[in-house]
Amino acid sequence: MKQIIRAAITAFILTVIFSMIPFQANCSDISDEVFRLHILANSDSNKDQSLKLRVRDKVLSHTEALFNSAKSKQEAEQLVSDNIQTIADIAAKEIFDNGYNYSVKVQIVKMHFSTRRYENFTLPAGMYDALRITIGEGRGHNWWCVMFPSLCISSPADSEEKAKEVFSNGEYEVVKNEKTEYRFFIIECFETISSWFS
Q1: Best label site of 27, 75, 76, 153, fewest CB within 10 Å?
Q2: Mean pLDDT over all residues of the chain?
Q3: Residue 66: φ, ψ to 5°
Q4: Could you tell me if 82 and 108 are in contact, meaning their C-beta atoms sit under 8 angstroms apart?
């Protein structure tokens, strides 16, 4: 009886592992196709959190045309790199105009994101390239979005079209399917452990 139970458990584990292989591959491909925005507030005070959102609005207003013109993640990242000082200046001016003297640090980074739900999309955990804006001490809650494909500056209908243009059928199924929570959880555990060693 014990052997039957062991065999059944082993079969179940193997089934889960093999079912995760294509899902994991699509998740890895998604992180290679996406460029994100990550803004860290100075602190969690209401004023600092409000300032973070004002900086966000100014940066998104400036970068909308840039990211709508990008045809690939690499092109989007290059556009940010070419305009990174301008973006820093815009953020710094918005901070100053609101009566603060916080420093601002703007950089392109590769960082770990946990699984995140964004309106009608879910992005799996993984290492993503991102434009990170750190306001002051950067100890407050963050705000994030997807700059390429430009999901955070598009209407829901437009973001659907942009996602379909960028993602393969398998990748699109991953980000749109709301019935894969356990798979996202497994991927997140794996990616979190991996990030500890990277």
Answers
A1: 75
A2: 76
A3: -60, -50
A4: no
